[in-house]
Amino acid sequence: MMAPFLKYGMFGDETSLVLAFLIGIGFGFFLERAGFGSARKLVSQFYLNDLAVFKVMFTAIVTAMLGVTYLGWIGWLDLSLVYLVPTYLVPQIAGGLILGAGFVIGGYCPGTSVAATATGRVDGLIYLVGIFAGMFAFAEMFPLLKGFYLSGAGEAMTIPGAFGLPYGVVVFAVVLMAVGGFYGAGLLEKKFATPVE
Amino acid sequence: MRGWISRLTLNQTLAVAAVALGALALFAAPYPGSKVTLDARELALVVGTEADHIEAPELAAWILENRADYRLIDLRTEREFAAYSIPTAVNVPMNVLTDAGLGRQEKIILYSEGGIHSAQAWMLLRAQGYKSVYMLKGGLEEWKDQVLFPAVADNPTATERARDERLKSISAFFGGQPRSAAAVAAGAAATPAMATAATPASPAVVAPPSPAGGAKPAAPKKKKEGC
């Protein structure tokens, strides 16, 4: 048996929706348990006194990356069938900046605002309303934005491909970046430590 | 050594483990290399579950959506390709298929006139380690039948009408013209319609509802439909 299971026909679309629901529940649960249902906790990273978000997210990246690498290596996962989102560099950078600005202003990112809403936080709910209003506005304006939205090559770009590096070198470099980042984050947290509610 | 490890905190232990796994990954080759073994069971599963092909209406929808995550390969000869091709397709005749520089990770959709050449090319590419290869079911013939010249009901019910309107707009987008279901049932093949498609200057079909937010309809290739 080889992953990705859906593409090898191990289960159909309906089962994939059930699995997506269960994975979503798990994602939300761990976001909330990590304290990411609180806007105060989330924005602390911008004041450099609590970099838990950075640490949790980078840990998830490294864990998933190592998992994917080794599963591919031993032949349990067919990496070439894993869907890669097409790269539209400039529009995606613009999107990232908008999301980042929204994160700083609103105190949540999309996933954490749902987790916050689920625990009854009104600010999370308002944020979620804003997300849907933004999605609606975007959809209505899509004909105007489409040219920019699809500008660029539209091919899935990968770091090994773009820089001509072997896959393993990139994996090792990302691990070193993460570990170095965690160490640096610890130092920053000590330096900027202020009691956060 | 053991004492040193035992003094590490949990976080430090995990960091050491991550670095060790990362270092080992330097030697990892998670993507298949040039050596490829055919997994007969896997291929049989793919074929059996029909996961090896996409149908003409699905491809039409992808083109309408301006999807860019696949490569559509026309396996016919240059001459046939010049006469008519599905929009977005590139011509890679069978004899140069393996030298065409297709990526092993690309989603490749093959089509030929019927289905035989694309099925052969599918097997050829799979044997060479191309993982994401699909065939257009029924080839260009089914594309004509289902997308360019779909059969629409003569006295449609309410549900049929909605479906037919959609078929008509898709057909018009690709420069085709729907056929009457009665005529199709009576045995008129797609070919007569192909012949008529070259004649009317503006077929009386519903204009496509600016698909996917204003994509420019592919200019109807009236003169090129002599396939």
Condensed summary:
The complex is a heterodimer of chains A (197) and B (227). By secondary structure, chain A is mainly alpha-helical. Helices cover 68% and strands 0% of the residues of chain A.
SSE layout:
The complex is a heterodimer of chains A (197) and B (227).
Chain A: H1 13-33, H2 39-43, H3 52-73, H4 89-106, H5 110-118, H6 122-149, H7 159-163, H8 167-191
Helix pairs in contact in A: 1-5, 3-8, 4-6, 5-6
Chain B: H1 2-6, H2 10-25, H3 40-48, E1 53-54, H4 56-64, E2 71-74, H5 78-83, E3 90-91, E4 108-111, H6 116-127, E5 133-136, H7 139-148, E6 151-152, H8 158-173, E7 179-180, H9 181-185, H10 190-197, H11 211-214
Parallel strand pairs in B: 1-5, 2-3, 2-4, 4-5, 6-7
Q: Helix and strand succession of chain A?
A: HHHHHHHH
Largest protein interface? A-B, 38 and 30 residues
The percentage helix of chain A is: 55-70%
Query: What gap, in angstroms, lies between the N and C termini of chain B?
Result: 75 Å
Instruction: Compute the separation of the termini of chain A in Å.
Output: 49 Å
So what's the CATH class of the largest domain in chain B? Answer: Alpha Beta
Residue-averaged pLDDT of chain A, rounded? 89
Strand segment tally of chain A: 0
Largest sheet of chain A: none
Q: List the quaternary state of the chains.
A: heterodimer
Catalogue the unreliable spans of chain A: none
What general outline of chain A do the C-alpha atoms trace?
A: globular
- Overall shape of chain B: it is elongated
**CATH architecture annotation name of the largest domain in chain B:** 3-Layer(aba) Sandwich
Share in β-strands of chain A: under 5%
Query: If helices are DSSP runs of H or I spanning 4 or more residues, what is the number of helices of chain B?
Result: 11
Order of helices and strands of chain B: HHHEHEHEEHEHEHEHHH
